[in-house]
From TrEMBL, chain B:
<feature type="transmembrane region" description="Helical">
    <location>
        <begin position="28"/>
        <end position="50"/>
    </location>
</feature>
<protein>
    <submittedName>
        <fullName>Carbohydrate ABC transporter permease</fullName>
    </submittedName>
</protein>
<keyword id="KW-0472">Membrane</keyword>
<dbReference type="InterPro" id="IPR035906">
    <property type="entry name" value="MetI-like_sf"/>
</dbReference>
<feature type="transmembrane region" description="Helical">
    <location>
        <begin position="91"/>
        <end position="112"/>
    </location>
</feature>
<keyword id="KW-0812">Transmembrane</keyword>
<feature type="transmembrane region" description="Helical">
    <location>
        <begin position="199"/>
        <end position="224"/>
    </location>
</feature>
<comment type="similarity">
    <text>Belongs to the binding-protein-dependent transport system permease family.</text>
</comment>
<feature type="transmembrane region" description="Helical">
    <location>
        <begin position="124"/>
        <end position="145"/>
    </location>
</feature>
<keyword id="KW-0813">Transport</keyword>
<feature type="transmembrane region" description="Helical">
    <location>
        <begin position="259"/>
        <end position="278"/>
    </location>
</feature>
<feature type="transmembrane region" description="Helical">
    <location>
        <begin position="157"/>
        <end position="178"/>
    </location>
</feature>
<dbReference type="InterPro" id="IPR000515">
    <property type="entry name" value="MetI-like"/>
</dbReference>
<dbReference type="Pfam" id="PF00528">
    <property type="entry name" value="BPD_transp_1"/>
</dbReference>
<dbReference type="GO" id="GO:0055085">
    <property type="term" value="P:transmembrane transport"/>
</dbReference>
<dbReference type="GO" id="GO:0005886">
    <property type="term" value="C:plasma membrane"/>
</dbReference>
<keyword id="KW-1133">Transmembrane helix</keyword>
Length: 441, 292, 314
C-alpha cells in the first residue's frame, strides 16, 4: 500500500520514523561524498551487457507487498542474463529516505532503486543518479511509452534520470448507500465543482442526525488542494520549479473549494479531521465522499463498507485536472556495476515486465497499454477512471528542495480551510514564503 | 543505617492490630478512593481490549459500543499479516535478555568498585558516569548512530543493544546498594588474606539479590518499551523490536483501528503477563530503588 | 541509552562515608580498574564522546548528503531569538507542573494503601502500577482514541452530564492539557511504591506518641508523616521533573506530527526532533539538545538548593 508517495501529510506523518532515523544519518559519515554538481552525463554510453555477463547488484525498494511481483520480474530478467544476481533490499517506507540519504552520503547507494517525485530533484541535483540519456538514445527505452507527466517528473534541466515504474491518480470515492439514504443522486462523470458542493451539503443536512457528513475533505496536497488549484486553472510550482503559483486568483479558488466544504458543514472541520483521518471517516460510513488515490482501493475493498463503495472522476472546475505521481527506477551514478544495473532498469521498463507488474496486482504499471489488469483487479469498482485521468493529469509539483516549502503549505492552509484565517491572507502568505524557499534553492 | 535489604523486610510493621480500627477509622473511605482510582488506572487497558475485539464501525460509533455485537478475534490474526510479529517478538526478547544479563554484570562490578575500592581518579570517573544521567537521550543519538554504523552493526541485535549495555543508572543503583552494606564483612575476609575479587565474589555478590532484581526489572521495562533508539538503528522491519513495529503500524494510514488496538495489546501482553506473575517481587524490587 | 529518566534517581543523599572506616591505607592494586574498565569504556564510547561531538555539531551546519560546515555561533544566536524555543520551554514547564500535581495525590494514595490491615492492598498497588509498565506508544494510541472529539468515550461521558466535549487533541491549549493528563495518569505507579517504602520506615512509635499527646489524624499527618517522608517526596520530585522534560513519545503518538496544534503544543524534545529530523537541520538541533541539557541541569541544581528548606533527613 504505502508504495505511493506523498501527500506530505503522509510524508510528515510517517516522518516520525523516517525522520528519527534521519537523525543519525546524513552528514555524519566521514568523508561525505555528495554535495557535488549535477552528474555529468557520463561519457560511456549504455550498451546491453553480454548474455553471460556476471555481476551482483542490489535493488532498493520500500514496499514489501510488491516483492512477489518484483521477484517475478527478476526471474524474467535472469532468463536474459542468468549470471546477474539481483538482491532485492526492502526498507520500509518509514526509513527508506533516511537510509537512502545516509547511503548517498557515503557513496553506498543501491545499484538501482526506487525514487519518488518530492525527493527526485534533491538527489538529481547532487549528482546521485545516472542519466538515462544514452539508454534512450540507444532506443532501449522510448519515453513515449509512458505518461508524459511522469517522464517530466524525473527530468531535471533537460536530462532524464528515471524510468517510470507505475503511477497513481486521484478520483472521488463515494458511498452509494449513504447517497441513497440521503436521497441524493450519485455523482456521474462530467460533474462539476458546484455539483460536489451541493451534493455534499445536501447529504450533511439530510443525515446530520446520524453524525454523517457529505464528504471528508482532503487536507493534503496530492489528493486535495493540488488538484483543485490545477482545476481552477492555476499551478502550485511552475514547470521549471522556479516560481510558485500561490498568490494567484486561481490558487485562491483552489483553496476556497475546501474552505467552502468545511465552513458550510459539508465536511467535518479541521479539528475533526485531525482527530480522525478523512479515510477513516469514509470507511467507517461517516462520510459519503472521499477524494483519494488509486492506491486506496485496497483500503476500500477491505473495509466494512466495501459493497457500498464506488468511484468517479474528479469534478471539473475551470478545467479537468488531477495530480499524477509515480515511482521511477533510477540507477546510482556511483554504482560499481552500472552496466548490469542499467540492464535491469531497461528490463523493468519493458512491456513484458510492466504487464507482469500489473497482473500481480499491486500497482498501476506505467507502460501505456499495460494497465488493463489493474482495472480488472476489483471489477466491482470503476477503476478505469484512474486511467482515464492520465489524459488530464499534471505532474506532482516539485522543486529542487521540495520539503523546504511543502511543510509550509499544511501549516498555513489548515487554518484557512477551517475559516479561521481568510483564504486571501493564507494565499498571500504562501506566495511570499514558498517563493522565498524556492529562491533559496 | 540499616541495609536496604533489612529495611525492606518490613521489620517495622509493628502496628498492633487491636487498635487499628480506632486509630485509622473505617477502611471504607480508603477502599472507595482506591477502587475509583484503580478503575481510572485500568480503564484505558480495558477500553483497549474492547476496541481490539470490535469492528471498525463500532470503534467509531456514537454512543460508544461497550459490548461489541460479536467478539472479533480475527483482528488479532490480522496483526500477523500487517507486521512481522514473531520475528519482532524474538528481537524484543533477545535484546531484553542480553541487556539484563550484561548490565547486571557490568553494573555490579563497577558499582562495587565505586563504592568500596580505592583508586586514583575514582571521584572523577564516578562524576562523569553520573553526569550522563542528566543528559536527555536524544543528545546521544546522532553520534551513537554513527558509532554503531562504523562498527557495522546496523540492523543487528548487537547494534540495538550496544549503548544500552552501559548504564550509568544501574551503576549508581549498585553503588548505592554496596555503600549500604556493612564493611565488617569485607574486613574479616581481608584479614583472612582474600584478594579483592574473592571478597567481591564470595562475600558481597551473594548479598545483592534485592538490588539486582530491582535493576533487572527496570532494564526489562526500559528495554521492552524503548522506541527511539531501535527505530534509528533498525532499518529492516524484521530486525526491529515490537515497539518499533507498533509505531510503524500506527503510521500506516490504511490500517484499521481494531487491528491497531489488537497489535498494541499483543505488544504489551508479554510484559503485562510477566508483571502479573512476578508482581510481588517487582513491586518490592522497585520500592527498593526508592530507598537511598 | 540510559534508562529512561523516569526511573532515574537520585541525589546522593547523606550516605555516610564508609571508606574512611575501611582501615589504614590499603591498596587494591589494579583490581579496581579491572572492575570499572568494561563499564567505563562503554560509557566513554557511547555517552561521553557523543556529548563532545554534539557540542561540535552545534557550531556547524549539516549538508544534505553529509559534510559539516563550521558556522560559529550562528545556531546559538538563532536559538535564543527563536520564539518557538521559549514556547517549547513554557509548554514543557506547564506539562511538568501538571504532572507534579500528581505527587501530593500519590502521597495521599500511598498513605491509604499502606494503612495496616487494609485488604486488597497489593491489588491496588498493581492497578496503580499498570500505567508504569505500559508501552508509551501503545497506550498513547489508546488515549488518542479515548480523547477523540467525535467518537471518544471521554466526550461521551461528558455528554451524559450535558457537556458538549471539545476536540481535545486538536484545539490549541487543550491538546497540551490532554497530554499532561495522560502524564498525570501515568505518574502514580512508581511514586506510590517509593513513597510506600518511605512510609514503612516511619517508626510507629512516633505516631503513638503523637496520639498520646492528643494529636488529630491531620495533625499527625502534618507533624510526623510529612517531615519524615520528605526525602522520598524529594526523590520522586526529581525523577518526575527529569522525566517531564523528556516528554516526546506521548506527544508524538497522541497528537501526531502533522497536527495543526503541534506548533503551539510542542515540548522541548519535540522541538529538537522537529528541527533535527523533520527539517533536517541537525546542527541547530544539536544546539537545542545542549540547551535542554543546560535547562535540566539548572532545574536540578535549584531543586537541590531548595531541598535544604524542606527536606528532612534526620
Amino acid at each position: 500500500m504505502m508504495n505511493r508517495i506523498s501527500p506530505h501529510a503522509r510524508l510528515r506523518r510517517r516522518g516520525w520514523l523516517t525522520g528519527i532515523a534521519a537523525l543519525g544519518l546524513a552528514g555524519l559519515l566521514a568523508g561525505c561524498a555528495g554535495g557535488g554538481s549535477p552528474a555529468e552525463p557520463s561519457g560511456d554510453g549504455y550498451t546491453p551487457p553480454a548474455k553471460d555477463f556476471a555481476a551482483e547488484i542490489t535493488y532498493g525498494v520500500w514496499d514489501q507487498t510488491q516483492v512477489d511481483a518484483i521477484n517475478a520480474n527478476i526471474e524474467g530478467f535472469n532468463k536474459e542474463y542468468p549470471n546477474i544476481k539481483v538482491n532485492v533490499n526492502v526498507t520500509p517506507w518509514g526509513d527508506y529516505w533516511t537510509k537512502l540519504q545516509t547511503q548517498g552520503s557515503s557513496s553506498t547507494l543501491p545499484d538501482i532503486f526506487w525514487m519518488n517525485g518530492p525527493n527526485f530533484q534533491l538527489y538529481a541535483s547532487n549528482g546521485m543518479f545516472e542519466p538515462i540519456t544514452s539508454i534512450v538514445d540507444g532506443g532501449y527505452i522510448k519515453p513515449a511509452d509512458y505518461p508524459k507527466a511522469l517522464i517530466d517528473l524525473y527530468t531535471l534541466d533537460g536530462v532524464s534520470y528515471g524510468v517510470p515504474k507505475d503511477f497513481d491518480t486521484i478520483a472521488v470515492w463515494y458511498n452509494k448507500a449513504l447517497f441513497a439514504k440521503a436521497g441524493v443522486e450519485v455523482p456521474k462523470a462530467g460533474w462539476t465543482w458546484d455539483d460536489i458542493q451541493t451534493k455534499a451539503k445536501a447529504i450533511s443536512t439530510a443525515l446530520s442526525g446520524d453524525g454523517i457528513y457529505g464528504i471528508a475533505a482532503a487536507t493534503d496536497g496530492q489528493s486535495g488542494y493540488y488538484d483543485t488549484i490545477l482545476q481552477a486553472g492555476g499551478d502550485v510550482i511552475s514547470a521549471d520549479g522556479k516560481k510558485t503559483g500561490y498568490g494567484t486568483p486561481e490558487a485562491a479558488a483552489g483553496i476556497q473549494f475546501w474552505t467552502d466544504l468545511i465552513t458550510s458543514g459539508a465536511s467535518p472541520n479541521i479539528q475533526q479531521l485531525s482527530d480522525t483521518p478523512a479515510l477513516t471517516w469514509f470507511t467507517s460510513g461517516k462520510a459519503a465522499m472521499f477524494q483519494g488515490g488509486s492506491w486506496q482501493r485496497n483500503a476500500m475493498v477491505q473495509s466494512d463498507i466495501k459493497d457500498d463503495v464506488q468511484v468517479v472522476e474528479l469534478p471539473k472546475g475551470e478545467r479537468q485536472a488531477t495530480v499524477i505521481h509515480g515511482v521511477a527506477n533510477v540507477v546510482s551514478a556511483k554504482s560499481a556495476n552500472k552496466q548490469a544495473a542499467q540492464a535491469l532498469q531497461v528490463y523493468l521498463a519493458s512491456k513484458a515486465a510492466q504487464e507482469q507488474q500489473g497482473e500481480m496486482g499491486a500497482v498501476i504499471p506505467a507502460f501505456n497499454g499495460t494497465q488493463q489488469a489493474f482495472v480488472d483487479s476489483i471489477p466491482q469498482y470503476d477503476l478505469q477512471v484512474f486511467l482515464d485521468a492520465i489524459a488530464y493529469s499534471f505532474p506532482y509539483p516539485v522543486s529542487k528542495n521540495t520539503s523546504a516549502w511543502a511543510g509550509l503549505e499544511a501549516e498555513i492552509l489548515l487554518p484557512a480551510f477551517n475559516g479561521d484565517v481568510s483564504v486571501d491572507k493564507a494565499n498571500a502568505e504562501l506566495a511570499t514564503k514558498v517563493q522565498a524557499a524556492l529562491d533559496a534553492e | 543505617m540499616t541495609s536496604p535489604a533489612v529495611r525492606m523486610s518490613g521489620s517495622r510493621r509493628a502496628h498492633g492490630r487491636g487498635s487499628e480500627a480506632k486509630r485509622y477509622g473505617s477502611h471504607l473511605f480508603a477502599h472507595i478512593v482506591l477502587v475509583l482510582g484503580g478503575f481510572a488506572m485500568a480503564l484505558p487497558f480495558l477500553w483497549q481490549i474492547i476496541m481490539s475485539l470490535s469492528s471498525n464501525a463500532e470503534v467509531t460509533s456514537v454512543p460508544p459500543t461497550f459490548f461489541p455485537r460479536e467478539l472479533r478475534f480475527d483482528n488479532y490474526l490480522a496483526v500477523f499479516d500487517v507486521m512481522p510479529f514473531f520475528s519482532q517478538l524474538g528481537v524484543s526478547i533477545w535484546i531484553t535478555v542480553i541487556r539484563v544479563v550484561v548490565q547486571i554484570i557490568l553494573c555490579t562490578f563497577a558499582g562495587y568498585a565505586f563504592a568500596r575500592m580505592r583508586f586514583r581518579g575514582r571521584g572523577l570517573m564516578l562524576a562523569l558516569v553520573l553526569a550522563i544521567l542528566m543528559v536527555p537521550s536524544q543528545v546521544y543519538l546522532l553520534s551513537q548512530y554513527q558509532i554503531v554504523q562504523n562498527l557495522g552493526l546496523l540492523d543487528t541485535v548487537a547494534g540495538i543493544v550496544a549503548p544500552g549495555l552501559f548504564s550509568a543508572f544501574g551503576t549508581f543503583l549498585m553503588r548505592q546498594f554496596f555503600l549500604g552494606l556493612p564493611v565488617e564483612l569485607e574486613e574479616a575476609a581481608r584479614l583472612d588474606g582474600a584478594n579483592p575479587f574473592q571478597i567481591f565474589w564470595k562475600i558481597m555478590l551473594p548479598l545483592t539479590g534485592p538490588a539486582v532484581s530491582a535493576l533487572a526489572i527496570l532494564v526489562v521495562l526500559f528495554s521492552w518499551n524503548e522506541l527511539l533508539w531501535p527505530l534509528v538503528v533498525s532499518t529492516r522491519s524484521d530486525a526491529a523490536p515490537l515497539s518499533v513495529g507498533l509505531a510503524a503500524l500506527a503510521g500506516v494510514p490504511t490500517v484499521n483501528y481494531p487491528v491497531l488496538m489488537a497489535a498494541s495489546v499483543l505488544t504489551m501482553a508479554p510484559i503485562l503477563i510477566l508483571f502479573i506473575i512476578l508482581q510481588r517481587r517487582v513491586i518490592e524490587g522497585l520500592a527498593f530503588t526508592g530507598i537511598k | 541509552m540510559t534508562l529512561s529518566l523516569r526511573t532515574v534517581r537520585t541525589p546522593v543523599v547523606s550516605t555516610p562515608d564508609r571508606r574512611r572506616s575501611a582501615g589504614p591505607a590499603r591498596t587494591d592494586g589494579w583490581w579496581p580498574w579491572a572492575f570499572v574498565a568494561p563499564l567505563f569504556l562503554g560509557v566513554c564510547v557511547f555517552y561521553l564522546w557523543p556529548i563532545l561531538q554534539t557540542v561540535y555539531f552545534s557550531f556547524t551546519k549539516f549538508g544534505v548528503f553529509g559534510g559539516q560546515t563550521w558556522i560559529g555561533a550562528a545556531n546559538w544566536a538563532r536559538l535564543v531569538q527563536d520564539p518557538d524555543f521559549y514556547r517549547a520551554i513554557l509548554n514543557t514547564l506547564i506539562y511538568s507542573a501538571i504532572v507534579l500535581l500528581g505527587i501530593p495525590v500519590a502521597v495521599f494514595l500511598a498513605s491509604l494503601i499502606n494503612r495496616p490491615g487494609l485488604r486488597f492492598a497489593s491489588l491496588y498497588r498493581v492497578l496503580f502500577f499498570l500505567p508504569y509498565i505500559a508501552m508509551p506508544v501503545a497506550i498513547s494510541l489508546v488515549w488518542r482514541m479515548m480523547f477523540n472529539g467525535d467518537f471518544g468515550i471521554i466526550n461521551y461521558a461528558l455528554s451524559l452530564v450535558g457537556i458538549d466535549g471539545p476536540h481535545w487533541l486538536s484545539t490549541p491549549g487543550l491538546a497540551l492539557i490532554s497530554v499532561s493528563l495522560v502524564g498525570f495518569w501515568g505518574s502514580f505507579g512508581l511514586a506510590i511504591l517509593i513513597l510506600g517504602a518511605g512510609l514503612k520506615n516511619i517508626p510507629v512509635e512516633l505516631y503513638e506518641a503523637a496520639e498520646l499527646d492528643g494529636a488529630t489524624p491531620w495533625r499527625r499527618f502534618r507533624s510526623v508523616t510529612v517531615p519524615l517522608l520528605s526525602p522520598s517526596v524529594f526523590f520522586v520530585t526529581i525523577i518526575t521533573i527529569i522525566g517531564s522534560f523528556q516528554l516526546f513519545d506521548a506527544l508524538y503518538a497522541m497528537l501526531g506530527p502533522n497536527n495543526p496544534v503541534m506548533p503551539a503544543t510542542q515540548s522541548l524534545v519535540f522541538y529538537f526532533y522537529e528541527n533535527g529530523f523533520i527539517r533536517n537541520d541537525k546542527g541547530f538541533a544539536a544546539a537545542i539538545a545542549l540547551a535542554i541539557l543546560v535547562i535540566i541541569g539548572i532545574v536540578t541544581v535549584i531543586q537541590f538548593r531548595l531541598q535544604k528548606r524542606w527536606v528532612n533527613y534526620d
